[in-house]
Fold these 4 entries.
Entry 1:
Amino acid sequence: MPELPEVETVRRSLEGLVGRRVVRAEVRSPVLVRYPALAEFLTRVSGRTFTALDRRAKYLLLKLDSGDDLMVHLKMTGRLLQQAPLDPVEPHTHIILHLDDGSELRFADTRKFGGFYLIGQDREGAPPGFRRLGPEPLSEEFTPAYLRQVLGKRKGRIKSLLLNQDIIAGLGNIYADEALFRARIHPGREAASLTPAEIHHMHEVVNQVILESLALGGTSFSSYVDGKGNKGHNVENLRVYGREGQPCVECGDPIARIVIGGRSAHFCPRCQPGRTSRRRNRAVGSAAKSKRAQRRDE
DNA sequence: AAGAAGTCCTGGGCGC
DNA sequence: TGCGCCCAGGACTTCT
C-alpha cells in the first residue's frame, strides 16, 4: 500500500525520466485515464518531455515541458516501472509510455484503483481531495501546535483522523498504526481526549516512522516495488501492522486487530491502553462475521 | 460541519 | 479438488 515513503521512493527511483520525451502513449485500459478524456490525454502527452519529478502526499507529479503535470496515484496495488522493451510486461499493465531512449514507463495495477490525471496550471481535473491536502509529515507546517489545533476539538477517533488526508497528507494504514503504537495511544481514542504531551509525542513519532521507512526504501507489504522493481525493507521494522496475534515487541502480549472507520487497526492492548468501550471498538472475528451473515439473510 | 458507512476492484486465502 | 465467499484499503460519494 503505497503511502508517503513508498511514493517518494518511487519518485527518486524514476528521476532518470527527466529529459526523456514521450514518443507514444499506449492506453490498454482507458478507465485508468481519469482526466481528461482519452483522446485529449493522448494528444497532450505525446511528444512532451519530462522536466521534473515531484510528489505531493501520495500523488506523483511528472512535470511536462508543456506546463502540464502528469499526476499518478498508485492507490493500493499500482506500480510505475521504467523498463526496457524486452523486459516482460507484467500482468495488469494498463498504460505504457514509450520514451525516446527506447525505454518504457509502464503502469500496472491489479485492482485498477489507481490512475493517471493530466492536469494543467489551473489544476482543473485534479481529484477533489488534492486541493484540500493538509501538511505532510517532515514539512515545516507540520508542527505540534498545528496538530493540537486541528485535533483539539475533534470527536472522531485518532486513527481515522490520522488517515484523513486533509489533516495529515501522506499517512496510510500502516504508518498510522505504527505511529500510534510508538506513541502508546489506543487507535480508538477520541482525538480531543489526547493530552498536549500525547499530541507532542504523536507528532514526533509520525515523523519518525516516515523517516525510518524512507531510509529503508518503503514497506513492501504486498505488491509495492519502486520504479526499478526493487522491494522496500521496512516490513522488518513494523511493530504492529500485519502482526495480529504475534507477540508485542515491547511486552510480549499478542497484537490485536479491531476495525475503526472500516479499516483494520493493529495495536497492543497492554502498551496502548484505552477506554476500550466495546460499543465503539468492534472486534474482528466471529462477532463481526455473524453480523455480516445476519445482514445477508435479511 | 463532521463522522460514519458504502463504494470501487480483484487475486489470494479460507471454509466447506 | 473445487466452488464461492470474504478480505485488503485510498479516497471518493452518500447518508445521518
Entry 2:
Amino acid sequence: MNKSADIFVRTKVLRKYLKDNRLSEVQFAEMIGVAHSTVNRVLNGKRNPGSKFIAGVLKNFSDLNFEQIFSYNNELPKGKKEVS
Amino acid sequence: MNKSADIFVRTKVLRKYLKDNRLSEVQFAEMIGVAHSTVNRVLNGKRNPGSKFIAGVLKNFSDLNFEQIFSYNNELPKGKKEVS
DNA sequence: TTTGGTAATTACCTTATGGTAATAATTTAT
DNA sequence: ATAAATTATTACCATAAGGTAATTACCAAA
C-alpha cells in the first residue's frame, strides 16, 4: 500500500538550531514535553516524530514553522485528485 | 506526567471543508493516504491524528494550513523556559 | 588520573495510531 | 418497497512512537 506518508525531521536543521541556541537534547526534550530518549532517537533517525513531538515543537517554538523543521515525501497517494 | 501535548483535529472545520468540497470520508482518506476508518475515527474524536494523517493533509491540501485544521493544548510543559 | 557531573544512547515495555475487513446505516434506482 | 450502491462505524490486530531507567561517553575540576 501507500508507504510514503510519514513526517520526517530535518535533523541537520534541528541540530543546528539546538547548537545555535545552546540547547542540549535533554533541555529541548523538556521544553517540547517529550522524553529525552525520544529526541535522541528522532535526531538519530531511529524514530520519526509523532504528533506529540510535532505539537511540542510548534507549541513552544513559535520562531519555527512546520516546514523549517519537518518534511514529508511529496508523492501523491493512489487515488488523489485535485480538489475544487 | 505531562499529558497535554497531543495534536487534535478541528472536527467542525474539517467536516465543513469536506462538505463544501463534496468529499466523502472515503475519498478524503484516499487523498491523504490513510484508511477510511482512520478518518472516521478522527472525525468522531475516537483517535487523534497521527503524523501520517497530518502529513497527508498538509501534503495534499495546500489550501489548508496547519492551524486551520489542527490544534494543540497551549500549556507549557514542565521545565519550559523561553529560548533566547 | 580519578571524581563528579552533564550529555547521549539503548534495551525493554506500554500505549496509541493505522490497517483490514466485517457490519450497519444511508441513499439512490428500479 | 426492495435491491444495489455508497457511506459510516467498529472489533480485532500489527506496528510505530513514547516513557523509564540503566548504561555509556564526554568533559571539567581537583
Entry 3:
Amino acid sequence: MNNRKRQVIVASQKLFVEKGFQNTSIQDILDESHISKGTFYNYFASKNECLIAIIAKGREEADVRKHEMLIGQDPKDKNILAKQIAVLMQINRDQNLIPIFESIFHSGDPELKEVVMRFHLNELNWLAKRIVDIYGEESKPHCYDAAILTFGMIQHMLHIWKITREDSLDPVLIVKYVIQQLDAILPAQIEKGEHFLGCDLAKYLHENFKHKYVTKEYLVEQLNGFSEGLIEDDLQAGKEYTACLIKSLREETIPYYIIEAIVLPFNTSFKGTKHAAEAQEIANLIWLFIKQNNNLNILNSN
Amino acid sequence: MNNRKRQVIVASQKLFVEKGFQNTSIQDILDESHISKGTFYNYFASKNECLIAIIAKGREEADVRKHEMLIGQDPKDKNILAKQIAVLMQINRDQNLIPIFESIFHSGDPELKEVVMRFHLNELNWLAKRIVDIYGEESKPHCYDAAILTFGMIQHMLHIWKITREDSLDPVLIVKYVIQQLDAILPAQIEKGEHFLGCDLAKYLHENFKHKYVTKEYLVEQLNGFSEGLIEDDLQAGKEYTACLIKSLREETIPYYIIEAIVLPFNTSFKGTKHAAEAQEIANLIWLFIKQNNNLNILNSN
DNA sequence: ATTCATTTTATACTCATGGTACAACTTTTT
DNA sequence: AAAAAGTTGTACCATGAGTATAAAATGAAT
C-alpha cells in the first residue's frame, strides 16, 4: 500500500542520483522498482510529482536532523552550526538535490519551480536566524545578506570540489572554512552598517511565509470558505476530500497521516477547474501546517 | 552561407532565453529562424551542438570584452575588476547562460558537461589571476579559494535577487558588494596563512589547461602522432580530415576558418572508434588554439 | 544561357518518451 | 465468498529529436 509508494520513491531517487532527472525515463523507474506503469501513475500524477515527493522527503529529513542536532546544545556554538549545515549539504549531495534543484529551477515547469523556491528560501530563512543566534542581535540587519553569501560560498566550493576531485571530502570541512570567512565578513559589515538585499528578502519572506505559522483555526476557516465556494457541478471527489479535511482538523487528536494522504488527491482533484489555484494554495498551507506540527512534536518530546 | 548559421544561432538563443533550453523544440527554432529542418541539421549535429555554439559565442564575447576593458587601465583598480565581472554576469544573464549552465551540467550529456566545465574553470582561472593583480603577490596562495568564494557569492546573490524581485538591478552593484566582502576575507586569509581547495584546483587547472598555451608546433606534433596511429581499417574521412588539419597548420598564413570547419567533423568521424578519446582531446586542443589565437589578434591590434 | 554542384526545402519517416485508458488479474478487507 | 481496492499488461496517443531523400532553388563556371 503506502509501502509501494516508498518503494517507488527509493528506486526513482536512486536513478535520479545516478543518471539525473532528465535522463531517467519512467520506464527506468518501472524496471528498477518492479512495478507497472499503472501503479506509478496511481501514486504520482506525473514524473514531476514524483520528483517533488523526493525533494520533499529530503527537506523533511534535513529539517528533522537540523532540529535534532540543536537539542540540548548551545545555539551559539559555531561547530554545531557547521555540523547542521554539513548535514544539510550531505543530504543534498547524497540525494543529488542541488543539481536537480538548479536544473529544474530554470527548465522545469512553474509548479516544480515554486516548490524548489519555497524550500530554498525556507533554508535561507533558517540560516539567517541561526546567524543571529550566533553573532548576536547586532548582526540582525545583515543576517539575510550573510546567509545568502554563506550558502553561495558553500555551494560553489562544493561544486568546484566535486568537479576537480573525485574523492569524497567531508563537507563539514568546507562549511567550517566558509564560516571562518563569515567571521571576517560579518564584523566588517556590522561596522559599516550597510545592508544589501537583506531588507528586500526579509520583506519577501515575510509576505510569502506569513502562513508559515498557520494555526489549525486558520486552516479550518480557509477550508470552510473554500467549501462554500464549491457548486453542484464540481466533482464529488473534491467535495469529499474537502469535507474530510475539515472533519479531520476538528478532531481532538489530529490524524496527521490521514490529512497527509488526502492533501495530494485533494489538490489534484481540482486540477483544471476554476478552483485549481485556490486548492493549490490550501494544499500548500496544509503541507506547511503538517511540517510545522511535526517539528513541534520533536521539540516538545525532548 | 555562414550567415545562415548565425541566423539560426541568434534565433535559437532568443528562444532559449525566453523559454529555456528544454522547453524549446527544434520546431520552434525552425519557425523562429525561418529555415527548414534539413538546414538546421546541416549546421548542427544536434540541439546540444547548437547550444554549445551559443555558449561558446557568449564566452568568446565575454573574453573579448574583458580584455577590452582592461586595455590602458590600471590592473589594480577594483572598479575595473567589478565592471569586468559585471559584464561577464551581464552576458550570462542576458543570454540566460547560468541557468542553462547549471541545468545542463547535471542533466545533460557528458559532452555538454565537458564544455561548460571548461568554460567555468577558465573563468575561475582568470579571476584568480586578477585577484593577484589587485591584492598582490602575497594573496597568491589564496587566490583560487578567493575566486571560488567570490563567484559563489555573486552567483547566489544574483540568483536570490532574481527570485525575490522582478526589477532589473544593476549587476555591478552586487559585484561591488561582493568585492567589499573580499576586502574583509583576503587579509584575514593572508594573516592566517591557510589555504583550502586552492592548491588542488591550481594543480587541476594546470593539468587540464596546460595546453592552453598550445603552440602550432605542438599541435602538428600531436596530429602527426595521431595520424601514425591510424590503420587501414579506419574511415577514409577521418584520415582526410587529419591530413587536412596538418596541412592547414603548416601553411604560412593559417586558414583558421577552414580548421574551425573541420574540427567538428574530424571529431565526430572518430566517434565510436578506439581513437575517439584521442580525437576528442586533439579537437579540444585545436579549439583552444583557435581561441587563443583570436585573442592574440585582438590584443595585437590594440 | 546552360550546366553542374551546392544549399535549401518539404515531406515523410523512425524511435524514444510521457502520459492515458482499460480490461484482466491479484490481494486485502469485510 | 464477495466486494473493494490495488496491480498488471497491453495497447494507445501526442510530442519531439533526429534521419532520409527527392525536388526545388541558388549560384558559380564555362
Entry 4:
Amino acid sequence: MKVLVADDDADLRELIAFTLTQAGYFVIKAGDGPAAVRLSQAETPDLVVLDVNMPGLSGFQVCEAIRRESRVPVMMLTVRGEEEDLVRALGLGADDYLTKPFSPRTLLARAAALLRRAGMDTAAPLTAGRVVLDLGEHTVAIDGGTAVRLTPLELRLLQMLVANAGRTVSSERLLVQVWGHKSGGDRQLLKQLVHRLRQKIETDPAAPALLRTAAAGYKLIVE
Amino acid sequence: MKVLVADDDADLRELIAFTLTQAGYFVIKAGDGPAAVRLSQAETPDLVVLDVNMPGLSGFQVCEAIRRESRVPVMMLTVRGEEEDLVRALGLGADDYLTKPFSPRTLLARAAALLRRAGMDTAAPLTAGRVVLDLGEHTVAIDGGTAVRLTPLELRLLQMLVANAGRTVSSERLLVQVWGHKSGGDRQLLKQLVHRLRQKIETDPAAPALLRTAAAGYKLIVE
DNA sequence: CGCGCATGTAACCGGTTTGTCACCGACCCG
DNA sequence: CGGGTCGGTGACAAACCGGTTACATGCGCG
C-alpha cells in the first residue's frame, strides 16, 4: 500500500512517514508541490497526504493537479481554525482533512478509513504468481501453503518485488526503497535480507525458485 | 543514448546540447515546435528536453503530440515562478521539469534519473540492425538468436554503440562514457573490452561483422 | 535482569569481472 | 631496412560480487 506524503516541513513529513511506515505502509516523500505532482504520477500511490501550506505550489494546486488525472484518495493537512481552507480543500476534491496538531493514532485511523472507502482495504492481500502477500498480517503464503510471518524489512523487500513481479529490480533501487538510503547504500544489508527471506519462502533456499538473482538486482519469478 | 533538445533560443539550445554531448549523449536539435514533433518521430530519442516557450507550437502542444504516440521521458523547461505552467506540463504527461536558469550539473542529474527510471520500467529492448539489446536483463541477441549475458562494462559499451548505430564512435567518447574517465585514456582497457565483447557477439571474432574498427574508434554495422 | 527477535557487521569461499602485462603482426615513415 | 605506433590476442593477477556462516548490537518484554 503506497502513500505519498507531501510536506515542506521536514520534521512533520518525517513524523508522518515514520508513523505510516511503522503501520506497514510503503511511503514516498515529497518536499514541495512540484515533486508531489510528479511523484503522484510516477508512483501511482494509493493515498496522498498533502500539507496545505507549501512554498511554490500550494496543497490546493497540487490537489487540483492530481484530481485532473486521478481519483486517488487525498488527505489534506490544515492548521486549526482555518475553516475556509477546509471548505476550499473539500471543494477541490480532497477526501478528508486533518487539523494540525494531530495524533499518530488519528492519522492512521483516517488513512485506513480512506483506503477502506476506496476499496483498497489493507485486508486485501497482494498476489503475484505463487506468492500471496498479506500486508495487514505481515505474512506470506506460497502456493496456498501456510502463512509465514515476515519481519518489517522482509515485508518491504517482498512488497517491492511483488509490485514488480517478473521484472528485475536493481539492488540500488531496493536499497533506497527498503532502507531509505539515499545512495551507495550497503550491499551487505541487501545480501543478508535476501538470504533471510529465502530461508522463509523458498523450499530449497540453496536453489531459489522464486526470489532469483538477476542482472544487477533481484526478481520475483512468476509461474 | 539519444536526446532531443527543442528550444527556439539558439544560445540556450546549444548550451544544453553541449552539456549533454560532453556527458556522452548523442544530441538531436530542434529550433521550433514542428521540428521537435517531426524529429521525435523520425529519430525516436530516449529523452526529450522541451522549452515551454516556443513560437508556433508551444512546448505544451509538442508534449501533447509526443504523448499521443510515445511514452518517451519528457523534461520541460519553465521560467521560475510560473507555477501553473508546471502543473499544466505535469498534467500533460511530462516526466520532469527544470526552472530556468539551471546548472549543467542539475540538468545532467535529472536527465540521468529520468533515463534510469525509463530504462528500468521499460522491458522494451533496444534494437539496431541485427542487434537486440535488453538493458533490464543485461543480455544481447544477434539475429534473434539465443540471448547472451553481458557484463556491466560490455553492456555499457554496446549500449553506446547501439545508440549511435552505423556511426563511428571515437575511442575518446567510449572511454568517457563507459569508464567515466575524464580524459586521457587507457586505450588498452577499450582494446580488451572490445575483444571480449566480440568473443560474445561475433560469429567469427577474428573477422568482425558487427563491431568494426573504424578510424579512431569503433562502429556498429547496420544493414 | 535476561531472553528472544530483528537487524547490522565481519569474515570467508568460489566464481566472475576487470585491469595489467607481454607479445604479435600490420602499417607508416624516415 | 629499422624503429615507432596501433590494434588484436593470450595469460595472469587483482578486485569484486553474491552466498554463506558466525557473531555483535539493540530492543521489547516477561
